[in-house]
Design a protein that fits this description.
Layout (H helix, E strand, L loop, with lengths): L3 E7 L2 E12 L4 E5 L4 H4 L1 H11 L7 E7 L11 H11 L9 E3 L2 E2 L5 E2 L4 H11 L2 E5 L3 H4 L6 E5 L2 H9 L30 H13 L3 E4 L6 H8 L8 H14 L11 E4 L5 H5 L9 H4 L4 E4 L7 H6 L1 H6 L1 E6 L2 E6 L3 E6 L18 H8 L4 H5 L3 E4 L5 H5 L9 H19 L12 H6 L5 H13 L4 H18 L6 H11 L9
Parallel strand pairs: 3-4, 5-8, 8-9, 10-15, 10-16, 11-12, 12-15
Antiparallel strand pairs: 1-2, 2-4, 6-7, 13-14
Amino acid sequence: MRPVMGVTLHGVEARKVEVEVEITGGLFSVSVVGLPDTAVKEARERVRAALRAVGLNVRGRVAINLAPADLPKEGALLDLPMAVGIAVAMGEASPPEGAILMGELALDGRVRKARGVVPAALLALREGWKIFVPRENVDEVSLIKGVEAYAVENLGELLAHLRGERPLQRVKPHPIPEDPLKADPDLSEIKGHSQAKRALEIAAAGHHNIFMIGSPGSGKTMLARALRGILPPLSDQEAMEVLLVKSTVGLSPGNVKERPFRIVHHTASTVAVCGGGPNLRPGEVSLAHRGVLFLDEFTEFRRELIEALRQPLEDGSIVVSRASGSVSYPARVLLVAACNPCPCGYLGDPSKQCRCSAAAIERYQRKISGPIVDRMDLYVSVPRLSPQELVSFSPAKSEDSATVRERVAEARKRQLSRWEKWGYSCNAEVPEKILKRHLNLSPEALGFLEKMAGKLQLTGRGITRILRVARTIADLDGVSFVSMGHLSEALAYRKGASMPWTS
């Protein structure tokens, strides 16, 4: 008895599952063994109805074994291989050789869209197998170069293919499309805030974390959204990393080259942001991999959630561990945090007086710990514009997002050529020992840094982050060395990091 091959997901990795079926005499029953979850157990009714819809009435005792027995199986990915396994056991189809089957079945035999198609296709590619996927997943699987994939509309269509009656057409591969990136809002539409725009350019060029502090209505959220329009497109390798995470949770590929931009509400749970749950799903920090994670009203987030971000911000990955096991997800994000300077929001505002007590301000500021403050690269004060500037109909006098994005892309190319041999693509990723060895810091800048490190009471991590930012500023200027001017600008964005609300 040859098993039919299916898959289950373990993090962003697809694992092989052998579906073995035995049919014996007796009253009708279907039993599924091999650590199935509720969705897999409920497949019994979906599979039976789908087989009946294509003219196959299942009789007797049906035993389905999902091997390996110690690997948890979750989701509806195994519906299709289970149905085909039963059809093979009934002698109604030939067993597929060297092929992976996946998909959820409807009661009328249709094959519904499945999540995890990209990890499964990569597994098939490594093993040299074919893969049969739902037709709704064609857009995803066609991006996997070299895999032999077939789209299945319904169960009857697949069984006819396996009998040799009506062969399915192979999915044609498509290169990753170069869709134009949109800027909404465009930087040229934002009035004032020249310092904040410059900080956004630096953050986009080096993938640096940025913290914006300002009164309500000052434009923090609008500036954060404008960051999306100046980020360079994903490389092919980065696009596949992002596509892998999206496929794991069943998200549409969308614009494959566009970097993710995830906005999280402050009521979100730690599991929603970091990942976890019964099936160890990825959280927002992984869905924002290679893109932006925007946490507005940063001080309103739960303290334990903010602290949980410390490890992924440092390592670029997150390990989710529960009683059912542990998985590692990518989490290389550009964190954008924004908050008010105090509970009422008007501390330091020139036109409106703050009503908060000193104790309330201190409690508010203590919501963000020193280790999190240390992991932010750029601190920007975003003051409110004057009423005259707000009501003015004259266009903003600043560069548009497309111009800034070209400059950012050139800086990214310089970083890639410098760090590619060590497996890194931007300054924010580079470990300290490699960074210092190839920083090319001028002697004057080194002396200035030694002086300011003591004055600002910088930690070792803080110094490293300043050097990374300075290296990015030099890359934007197109020079190979880091001068005192580059370092001074980087320090200006770090000044007052121990208490950013007063910077």
